[in-house]
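Bug: token stream looks shifted between consecutive jobs. Job 1:
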Amino acid sequence: MIECLNIWGIFLLLNYLTLNYCIYLNMNLILFILSTAGLTWILVLSKIFRPLREFITRKNSQKKSYLGEFLDGVFNCEGCMGFYSGTVVYVLQYYNIEFMLYAFAGSFCSLLFISIIKLINNR
């Protein structure tokens, strides 16, 4: 009887640890996704970076260069910037700089919720 309880206790402990680890991994994945989307939105679509995007486009149209075309392409493409944003977010997450990740995630979540509210109000 005692051996059965010990095995059951070990099973419950392993189950608890595995569940907590899965929740931790899922929260990191959710934070990664929201942060990447937020950083991409800030860099490609926000008013804050509009002067930089226009400067890059203007310089690229005046003098064609590989770097200019690359930056112009990246700053005007959500998918392209999403790749590099994901890389930046991964590095921030690896070095445990979470305050920036939460800022990017907050940016995306506020944009998402405001868009949903505007969509509901327009119906």
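Job 2, same session, no restart:
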Amino acid sequence: MNDTETIFIDGSIGEGGGQILRTSLALSCITGKRLHIENIRSYRHNPGLAKQHVCCVRAACQICDGKSKGAKQGSKVLDFQPDTVHGGRYCLDIGSAGSVSLVNCGAAVDYFLADQLLIYMAILNSGCYTIDKISKHTKTNIEVIKKFLPVDFVIEQQGNLFRITCQPAQ
């Protein structure tokens, strides 16, 4: 792990949304490089971190024993320091109106977070969540991840919901 290098990200680049945060956190966990993001969602109607973004930071901290500063709702600046990535089951309450509290690791996540959680699940070789519909982004990420890592994703329909589970490839 590279404890001295910090990657600086301007969170207003491109579309300036939460995708910048999610991708940066994932790559920080994988590479071990520290992360500093400024101007998080600065051009949005409600700038800064929203509840689901704070949840992503908490998830990243759990997955790699990371530390963060500025991981609170409305924050436009975040510092993240990853440590060692380790496996396990991780369940967090996103706490936004579009989500449901976690029960038995079957997190209910929103449409925009679903595809981003896949990389964390694949790195850990486990995990699951539920969602009301499967996006093209989710399907694409599953296929890309399976090319890099020895994992399978099982999609089961349960009434009006879908449960996505990550497991070791057979």
